[in-house]
Write a structure and sequence with these properties.
It is built from 23 helices and ten strands. It is α/β, with parallel strands linked by helices. The chain has two domains: 257 residues, MetI-like fold (Orthogonal Bundle), CATH 1.10.3720.10; 253 residues, Rossmann fold.
């Protein structure tokens, strides 16, 4: 928040808004103390007087100075508007988080109710609630608060929906963290700043609305007075003394502008329109170490005697909206040996990532995962209880996601996020975990690891975030790393560094790696074996040294679609569709002979990629 205020002060709009808001708040704080008694002093000899040197705005029907009463009314007007805003934010937040806490069915009902409530004009809702609660200031506060709650609820629901889609929230759920802890630890800190900004803007609207209710006689009642009440009293003599009604009206406009401009300026400083709103610094709670018992002797023996990962007939299905079933993965078989790097390659939508998520037990409803065999370190995680499954996958399997920015919680420092893995899964104390986090960052070639631990994810470059993601996976010395397109969107230099890092981890730690990519040239450079995937199925499995002699047309099309130094610049780049069509024509003409798909592929060419 300090950075936000600093950024606001550096702009003319922000500096003006903050100065105006400070003036309003100072008036609200000190005007009743300085002029409260004078504002209530009556002068029967000077009733309903016009503007003069003694009374700049005039007097009311009891001879009280209207300018002083306008200044003194600032406190009550601001307090009531802020209370109404607090009620709106509180009620809206409860409705906004309800879908996250109540589940799909009840949560959808709350969402529908919110949508219906948002469709009604806020002023009509306020008048409706005011008629129910009565004509008092307290009733008006609740009326305006409940009338404004639906808009805040819709805002919260939209923000929470965006945070729920982040990988770090999904990982927290799969890791056994309950809904309330996910809400308070991962969701609310990420929506705090946009809520504050919108609440600031909403306070300006509440100020105007409350003045309107008081003007109609549904808000503050005598002998108390706010700006709306002063406007109503001044309206009676508006032709004789227009300033009696204009002065509190001007005060309402100035205060409303102060709140609205401050909110708008804060929004610009945070870049809310560009979805760069996730830089709040929450108050951290101490995480209690999870004292996890080691695996039993039987588990250890079975893990050493079996391959790291065995999968047979893996299927992932999703129920469509029209009742049909979508088969995302269909009958996949794969095995990963100790210290082996196995690549899964295919075009986008072929089922690569879904296969990895199914292996890591990260597929959630409405998806269903079935497999004839699914063993990790000799154990079927589906047959374990929640605690043992979490211990097995949390300590022996690591997942490196494609987008590390969505995998890291943007409101937590990097050191806290890395240390949490060791605290939760290895039972280390906080300082021990931070020491290990620094060591892991150094192992993935991030300089000044101690300083980096105090930084936030947005302060890391793309390549550094990817390496830090790998370092997080190494916090508990995993036996298998699932790398889901870790080099996507990285430049070739950083991509090469990430590949070298993964290869070094395999050589130094003996860690097995399941590497997923759509770039067959990257797979050819890193992996020992390659599984070619298309439409949810493995169409070909071969040693990386045999890529040049691939027999399946789809594999050869993937190879031929990669441009190289000898590519003819006068011809359009090859695509899978055109290459497969050419393959089919060639098979029809030549029979079983394999066409060159536009060029010959030899082993040296594959290796150079």
């Amino acid at each position: 928040m300090r950075r936000t205020i600093t950024a606001m002060v550096r702009t003319p709009l922000g500096a003006t808004a903050l100065a105006l808001l400070a003036l309003v708040l100072l008036t609200a704080a000190f005007a009743p103390l300085l002029w409260g008694d004078q504002a209530d002093a009556t002068d029967t000899g000077d009733l309903l007087a016009g503007p003069s040197a003694e009374h700049l705005v005039g007097t009311d029907n009891l001879g009280r100075d209207l300018l002083l009463r306008t200044l003194v009314a600032t406190r009550l007007s601001i307090v009531l508007a802020l209370c109404a805003t607090a009620v709106a934010v509180g009620a809206g937040l409860l409705l906004g988080v309800a879908p996250l806490l109540l589940g799909r069915v009840l949560g959808r009902a709350v969402t529908w109710f919110t949508g219906i409530a948002v469709a009604f004009p806020g002023l009509l809702l306020a008048l409706f609630f005011a008629a129910i609660f009565g004509s008092t200031a307290t009733a008006a506060v609740f009326a305006l608060g409940l009338a404004g709650a639906p808009s805040f609820a819709r805002l919260c629901q939209n923000l929470i929906a965006g945070i729920e889609a982040r990988d770090f929230v999904s990982a927290a759920r799969v890791g056994g963290i309950g809904r309330f802890r996910v809400l308070f630890r991962h969701v609310l800190p990420n929506i705090g700043e946009p809520l504050i900004v919108n609440a600031t803007v909403g306070a300006g609207g509440a100020l105007l609305a409350f003045a309107g209710l008081s003007f109609l006689g549904l808000g503050v009642q005598p002998p108390e007075y706010d700006w709306g009440r002063l406007m109503m009293d001044g309206l009676r003599g508006i032709y004789a003394n227009p300033l009696a009604a204009l002065a509190p009206g001007i005060a309402v406009v100035v205060a409303g502008l102060a709140f609205n401009l401050t909110g708008e300026s804060a929004a610009r400083s945070l870049g809310l329109s560009d979805d760069a709103i996730l830089t709040a610094i929450p108050r951290r709670r101490r995480v209690r170490p999870a004292h996890v018992a080691p695996l039993s002797a039987d588990d250890t023996a079975s893990a050493e005697s079996a391959p790291v990962l065995e999968v047979e007939d893996l299927r992932v299905d999703f129920l469509g909206t029209n009742g049909t079933t979508v088969h995302a993965v269909r009958g996949v078989d794969l095995t990963v040996g100790t210290g082996e790097i196995v690549g899964i390659v295919g075009e986008s939508g072929s089922g690569k990532s879904m296969t990895a998520l199914a292996v890591a037990q990260l597929v959630t409803s409405p998806g269903t995962v079935t497999a004839r065999t699914l063993r990790f370190l000799g154990t079927d995680p589906r047959a374990l209880g929640a605690t043992r499954r979490r211990r097995l996958l949390g300590t022996s399997m690591a997942v490196v996601f494609q987008d590390p920015m969505s995998s890291f919680n943007p409101t937590m420092r990097m050191g806290d996020q890395l240390a949490e893995v060791a605290v939760e899964h290895a039972g280390l104390r906080r300082q021990e975990a931070r020491d290990r986090a620094a060591d892991r960052l150094a192992s993935v070639r991030i300089t000044s690891p101690r300083r980096r631990l105090r930084q936030y994810p947005y302060e890391f470059s793309g390549g550094m975030r990817q390496r830090a993601m790998i370092g997080m996976g190494l916090m508990v010395s995993p036996r298998l790393i699932i790398a889901d397109e870790p080099t996507t969107a990285l430049d070739v230099t950083v991509q090469s560094q990430v590949l070298d890092l993964l290869r070094a981890i395999r050589d130094e730690e003996g860690t097995s790696i399941l590497f997923i990519s759509h770039d067959i040239s990257v797979v050819a450079e890193l992996c020992d074996r390659v599984l070619v995937m298309r439409a949810g199925e493995i169409v070909e499995e071969l040693d990386v040294r045999d890529l040049s002699s691939a027999t399946h047309p789809y594999t050869r099309a993937l190879l031929a679609a990669v441009p190289h130094m000898g590519t003819d610049l006068d011809r359009p780049l090859a695509t899978l569709a055109t290459l497969e069509a050419e393959e089919e024509r060639s098979q029809g003409e030549v029979g079983a002979s394999a066409p060159d798909l536009g060029r010959d592929l030899d082993q040296s060419e594959v290796s150079s990629r």
